[in-house]
Structure formats: C-alpha cells, structure tokens
C-alpha cells in the first residue's frame, strides 16, 4: 500500500524496464546510449529515485518508442507539465489541490477505463454543479466559514470537479462503469431541488455509450463493498499501470500489487452481479427522478 507518488515512480520504472528489455538492451547498454552511469538506470527502473520528464524522453527515444499516447502517459507519470488538451489543465489549480488529488486527476486523465463503487455520493464525473458544491462544502469542513478566501477556494474545487468531467467527452472518452449503492440515490444532498436535478443528470449519463451505471439496492443486503468505495483505473496501452485507489478524508492510498488488483476486480464483478442490470438501473433512477 503506497501513496500516489511512490506508486507512480514504481510503475514508471517497471514500464521503462519492460521497454528496455523489449528493445533488446541491457541496463548498461541503455545507460551508454543516453550518457549515464548504469546505476542511474537501475535506480529509475526500481523506483528508488525519481526521474525527470526530460530523462524519460531520452530513454524512450533510445528504446525507439513511437507510440504517442504511451509516451505522454509515461511523461505524465514523471510529472511532466507538457502536453495539450485535457491532460494538464489541473496545474492551474496547484494552489488549492493537495498532491494526492493531483495524482488522482493525472491518472484519471490518462486512463482508458474507470470502475468505481460509490456508497455515499454520486461519482464526481457525474455530479451537477449544485450537487458538487454541496458535497465539497460538506467534505471540507474548513470551508464552512463565510470568509472570501473560503468561498474562492470552494468555487475553485467545484470548478476542478466539473473540469474533470471532460474525460467523458474526450476522444476517445473514458469508459466509466459505476456501481451505486442505493444510499447514493436516497441521500438528499443540497436539498430536494438539487437532488432532483442530480437524478436527472444520472439518467442522462446512463444513456451515454461510454457510461455503465448499476444500482445496488438495499435488498441486496450485505455485500463485498460494504467496507467502502474504491476506484480501479485501467490503461489501454499497458495493464501494468492499472491501480486501485482508496479515498480517505485526508489522503488517498494506492494499491498496485497484482493480488490487490485481482481482489478488487473480482469484488467489482461480484457487485455487478448483485446489482440491478444497467437497463433496470436506468428505469429505477428515472422513477426516482420523476418522483423527486
């Protein structure tokens, strides 16, 4: 169990090692190609030390890696601020975003698929502005005061949450599969009108081809996800970068071991079996929205 930066270093190192091996190079040969000592390559590959984006670029060039999307993903893992479109917009909010949240957003922006269990609130990628504002105000208790700074920070965090939703409109879009505990739909956040609009937003989202929503009803009883929500990020170019994220009040934890990934993947598949089908879930949410 690691914090985000350590996970990213290890994953980046493992991927660079695989690319080097695939290029038929020893670590010593790779080091000579880029003008380094062999120990530097070894430290990077084991995640023992960080690596600058410029150094990653040198290694990718030496290994003949031409895949633009894979190159960008690895550069983002190295902390690169370069690139266009949706991949780096969050750097404008560095002053209000804790490092773990920035790590989460960087992974989300590069992932090809996201599977999530939500037990309390609507997934951030599907929240309306009013719902996002109510959730953010409740989650960050220090924003409850009336100071101008608190209001500005609240609005900045809401803006970040809404900007994150662009991944669903990108080309190609992030594929989102979410299991929502019935409590998510029943908990009245922001008041009746805010919740009514949020439910209608979920109905709209459930009809998108890249979004799969399933409701886990109270009638399902106890289930494997009862201990709390989680997110699984998957990457189209390499499964070695897949990671599970567990969110806590003051930090996030990242699980990268294959055993952990397998356990959470099996848990998510089990939850989908016990949940209503996507079609049944859409009808259920629509019925709630109609009566809200």
What do these coordinates show?
It is a single chain. The chain has 292 residues and is α/β, with parallel strands linked by helices. It is 50% helix and 11% strand. The chain has two domains: 4-79, Orthogonal Bundle (434 Repressor (Amino-terminal Domain)); 91-291, Endonuclease, Chain A (2-Layer Sandwich), CATH 3.30.870. Strand 5 (243-247) and strand 6 form a beta hairpin. The radius of gyration is 21 Å and the shape is elongated.
Oligomer: single chain
Question: Could you name the ranges where pLDDT drops below 50 across 5 or more consecutive residues?
Answer: none
Backbone structural class: alpha/beta
Order of helices and strands: HHHHHHEHHEHHEEEEHH
CATH architecture of the largest domain: 2-Layer Sandwich
Topology (elements, then pairings):
Layout: H1 4-22, H2 27-34, H3 38-46, H4 53-62, H5 68-77, H6 99-110, E1 113-118, H7 129-139, H8 148-164, E2 175-181, H9 182-186, H10 192-206, E3 211-216, E4 230-234, E5 243-247, E6 252-255, H11 258-274, H12 278-291
Parallel strand pairs: 1-2, 2-3
Antiparallel strand pairs: 1-4, 4-5, 5-6
């Amino acid at each position: 169990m690691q914090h985000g930066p350590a996970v990213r270093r290890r994953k980046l190192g493992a991927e660079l090692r695989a690319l080097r091996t695939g290029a038929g190079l020893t670590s010593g040969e790779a080091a000579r190609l880029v003008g380094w000592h062999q120990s530097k390559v070894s430290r990077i590959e084991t995640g023992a030390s960080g690596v600058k984006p410029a150094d990653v670029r040198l290694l990718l060039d030496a290994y003949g890696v031409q895949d633009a999307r894979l190159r960008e993903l690895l550069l983002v893992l190295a902390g690169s601020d370069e690139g266009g479109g949706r991949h780096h917009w969050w750097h404008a909010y560095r002053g209000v975003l804790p490092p773990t949240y920035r790590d989460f957003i960087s992974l989300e922006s590069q992932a090809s698929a996201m599977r999530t269990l939500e037990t309390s609130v609507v997934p951030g990628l599907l929240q309306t502005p009013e719902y996002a504002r109510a959730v953010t105000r409740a989650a960050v208790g220090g924003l409850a005061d009336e100071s101008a700074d608190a209001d500005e920070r609240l609005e900045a965090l809401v803006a970040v949450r809404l900007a994150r939703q662009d991944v669903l409109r990108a080309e190609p879009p992030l594929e989102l599969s979410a299991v929502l505990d019935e409590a998510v739909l029943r908990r009245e956040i922001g008041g009746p009108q805010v919740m009514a609009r949020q439910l209608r937003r979920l109905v709209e989202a459930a009809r998108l081809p890249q979004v799969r929503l399933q409701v886990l009803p109270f009638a399902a009883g106890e289930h494997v996800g009862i201990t709390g929500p989680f997110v699984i990020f998957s990457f189209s170019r390499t499964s070695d970068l897949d990671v599970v994220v567990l969110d806590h009040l003051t930090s996030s934890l990242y699980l990268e071991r294959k055993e952990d990934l397998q356990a959470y993947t099996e848990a998510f598949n089990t939850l989908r079996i016990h949940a209503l089908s996507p079609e049944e879930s859409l009808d259920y949410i629509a019925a709630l929205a109609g009566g809200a």
